[in-house]
Amino acid sequence: MPDAGILPETPTNDKQTKEGESKGLERKGILQVLFGDEEQGYNYKALCLPHMPCLKGERPPVRLFPVDEPLPLTFSLVMGLQHAFAMVGGLVTPTYILFRYSIDFGNTALQQYAIVAALITNGICTIVNVAKLPVPLTKKIFGRQLYIGSGLLSVVGTNFTFLPIYESCIEHMKEEGIDGTAAFGKLLGTSMACATIQLIFSLLPHRIIGKVFPPIVCAVAVTLIGVGLTGMGMKFWGGGVVCADSVWKLHEQAVDYVGPQPEFPIPENPSAYCENGDVILPFGSPEYIGLGFSVLVFLVAIEIFGSTFMKNCNMILALLLGFMVAGLSDHEGNSYVDSSKITDAPAVDFLWTEWFGIGFYRPAVIPMLIAYIISTIETIGDITATHEVSAMEIDNVEYQERIQGGLMSDAICS
């Protein structure tokens, strides 16, 4: 007989206890997947608390997360959204400029398709690049495993380097009576053929790549790219790249060569007046400078007072706040934001809804080859810089594989 003061443990109680522990572990596991925990370094108090420079006290340190560490879902989504917003402008701008001002100015539907196609293609190529896919049979053929993709969080997308080449070649082909879309198809075929030079570079041993593209060359190239993008950003700040590049046409010494410019832009000849939404103002107008300055103020405020989490998302926060200011503002009753093109665009579009044909344009071969060599330097420099800021070594086999895979994904996606 059991002791009167001790109740025996029944199977039911034991089962309930195990079920409770299982549910607790399951709940904890779900929370870890969504948010992580402090033991893993996800101190959300340190990540989310704003910083007040005037207050004393040390801020809790925020550690660097290794490259292959699985991040919580919430953390990944916020960081991914921030990167997506940061890169969208650079991905669609060359495409938009080319299709609007070189291929067909008045065909809004074609311009919308081009932007959709650029985003779809860039998304697919970026996934391939991040995945770092092994190429079958390459170990037997080349004596080493080859990959498609660098395996780093780097975007494969449109490149401003090719924009002047496309613009100039399409203009020459139009003068010869070739339609803009057909001219674009010829350049697509030429680009596909010239991309083989980057594919050849990806197959070379790393010691040869290191001699052809030494680190000092890649570092200078990446620095100059940043300087060039700064200039591009200043043009956008003043009202737009196209009208910024057209300002010289208004100079009195240039009028005799290009003819008098219209007071406002017309489709046949865009002038130095910038159209943003329903507002048309000269390039560098105080209104445009003020809107751009609002984004800069938000960025500076976030860097000074923002939490670590906000600083990681500074681009998306500043863009959203700046867009809000533009949406709430107007100029003489005209809005800076025009959503009609978004409203009129199809809800869903695909790559195969347009066809430009594939041709070949011989005068573009040498400029294209030079552009792909520049793109190769950019790729090596970007991967090297990403390795360094991620606290990864740049003299081991893994780094060499990432260089090879990044070059091959660049070539194939091109």
Task: Characterise this structure.
By secondary structure, the protein is mostly helical. 61% of the residues lie in helices and 4% in strands. The protein is built from 18 helices and six strands. The strands form three sheets. A two-stranded antiparallel sheet has the order 1-2. Strands 3-4 form a two-stranded antiparallel ribbon. β3 (273-276) and β4 form a beta hairpin. The longest helix is centred in the first third of the chain and has 31 residues, at 73-103. The termini are far apart. Mean pLDDT is 79; it is low at 1-12, 251-255 and 257-271.
N→C terminal distance: 83 Å
Major sheet description: 2 strands, antiparallel
Helix segment tally:
18
Number of strands: 6
Residue share in helices? Answer: 55-70%
Strand order of the largest sheet: 1-2
Give average pLDDT, whole number: 79
Outline type? globular
Q: Output the radius of gyration.
A: 27 Å
Instruction: Indicate the low-confidence ranges by residue numbers.
Output: 1-12, 251-255, 257-271
Strand residue percentage = under 5%
State the order of secondary-structure elements, H for helix, E for strand: HHHHEHEHHHHHHHEEHHHEEHHH
